Amino acid sequence: MEKKTGFTGQLGFVFAAAGSAVGVGNLWRFPYLAAKNGGGVFLLIYLVLVLTVGFVLLTTDLAIGRKTGKSAIYAYESMRKKWKFLGIITFIVPVLIMTYYAVIGGWIVNYIILFLTGKVDIASQSDTFSNFISSPNSVWFSLFFMLLTSFIVYGGVEKGIERVSKFIMPVLLFMVVGIAIYSLTLKATAPNGEIRTGIDGLMVYLKPDFTGMTVGRFLQISLDAMSQLFFSLSVSMGIMITYGSYVRKDVDLSKSVSMIEIMDTGVAFLAGVMIIPPVFVFLGLEGMSAGPGLMFISLPKVFAQMGLGGRIIGFVFFVLAAFAALTSCISVLESIVANYMEILNAQRKRATVVLSIVYLIATGVIALGYSTFYVEVNLPNGTTGQLLDIMDYISNSFMMPFISLLSSILIGWIMTPQWVIDEMERGGKKFSRKRLYAVIIKYFCPVIMFILFLQSTGVFYLLKG
Fold first, then answer.
1. Tally of domains within the chain
2. What residues form the membrane-spanning segments (predicted)?
3. Is residue 397 included in any domain, yes or no?
4. Is 5 among the domain residues?
């Protein structure tokens, strides 16, 4: 196998890791979960979880990667031979995610083209999104996105992933801040004569709503926030283990973790500022309840009501979303390529070409899952879904909590937290949150991951029913 390359330094690593973390989950899933779960209540709970559980999971993955110098499968095997199975399970997660991530990227590309060509009226129609994904022609958009991802990963860690991340992440952050500020300046008159402003929408987003709050509802909000962490930080799927294996030994890993936390959480928070105030201004509270359709259905309607400015902002927003999807898609494919190279002792270019062919086929099948290969399956959590939803449920809702549960047991009780702490303090570096890390990885993580895993299996749904 060719000599393993790595990131040139801390900045390149942080941008790449943050690029993996800052994905469509931040721009799409976070805002609608916040709107659904009482605004400020969700934000407070999420922030607490990021600084505790999220910090622990991210630290663990990166430390495992750098200390072992290997990707998921062989990283766990090098720690304890009997735990190689955990590496295999972890490897399966990106394998499944990669089947549909480029599909979502393709959806975003379609909206970029609609806004670029001035077809805002078409983009804003309620049935545009459903008509697009149910058309066999949508597959070409997803295949293009998959090819773009493959091309970047083919270039390697330094010349491909790091170079693209160093360009995309600053631009992405600039665009997020710019649109967020613009959204606060909006104003519109509702049908009942009420004047709605972006600041009013910001208050809806930030103000905690404890109406009807019960222990059960609080638990559900906490579980939603916890599941968002997996999307947001790219933990428990082998990606950060792979990226950690590329990090130089002299990089301050503790500082890097903090920087990734700040960038990822900051973008997620600002995504809410970008999306929720405009939706409130033009669609009212009803628009806030759009759920998963917030990005592809509600937002285009908002942009259409802004006139020419809406066309420009809409175009910029979907370019931003495409950047976020691309950096995440790159990290998922890179994780698979890295494991392939280690397992088969293969060179990067050959591994990338082989896997790209596999995932072009898989992307095509999933993209056609709303038309040619349409199926509808009842999932254990009480929802129904198509091929994309099935892959998403298995990887994100079922496997990731299970992996986090086993990983916390391995590190907390078998390897002991000191194994990770030693890596974080390598070269005399300071790890100020090591006591917090030790307590959470041993006691808190196993409990919350077990609860989250039970939720994913449908236990709570069955009890409720």
1. 1
2. 7-28, 40-64, 85-118, 138-155, 167-185, 225-246, 267-285, 312-333, 353-373, 393-415, 436-463
3. yes
4. no
- Does residue 4 belong to any structural domain of this protein? no
Given a cut of 80, is residue 11 above it in pLDDT?
A: no
The structure tokens 């721009």 sit at 27
Taking Cα atoms as reference points, which of 82, 411, 406, 61 lies closest to residue 238?
A: 61
Give the Cα separation of 257 and 264 in Å (integer).
11
Query: Which residue, among 306, 20, 83, has the nearest Cα to 186 in the 3D structure?
Result: 306
The mean per-residue pLDDT over the stretch 350-372 comes to 96
- Give the DSSP per-residue string, 399-436: IHHHHHHHHHHIIIIII-THHHHHHHTGGG---TTHHH
Q: For residues 182 and 198, give the distance between their C-alpha atoms in angstroms, rounded to a whole number.
A: 9
Interatomic CA distance for residues 277 and 275, integer angstroms:
6
Question: Under a CB-based contact definition with an 8 Å cutoff, are residues 302 and 310 in contact?
Answer: yes
**CATH number of the domain that residue 107 is part of:** 1.10.4160.10
What sign has the CA pseudo-torsion 228, 242, 365, 160? positive
Query: Which pLDDT tens digit goes with each residue over 226-280?
Result: 888 887 788 888 888 988 888 888 889 999 999 888 888 888 898 889 888 888 8
DSSP per-residue letters across 9-50 = SHHHHHHHHHHHHSSHIIIIIHHHHHHHTTBHHHHHHHHHHI
Residue 1 lies in a domain: no
101 near 330, Cβ under 8 Å? no
Domain range spanning residue 423?
10-464
The two beta strands, 195-197 and 187-189, are: antiparallel
pLDDT tens digits along 176-215? 888 889 889 989 888 888 899 999 999 988 988 787 788 8
Assign residue 70 a region (left: φ > 0; alpha: ψ between -120 and 50; beta: otherwise): beta
Angle at 6 between CA 409 and CA 143, to 5 degrees: 85
pLDDT greater at residue 24 or residue 410: 410
pLDDT of residue 254: 92
23: buried, middle or exposed (CB in 10 Å: 19+, 13-18, 0-12)?
A: buried
Q: Could you report the per-residue pLDDT of 375-389, keeping only the tens digit for each?
A: 888 887 677 888 998
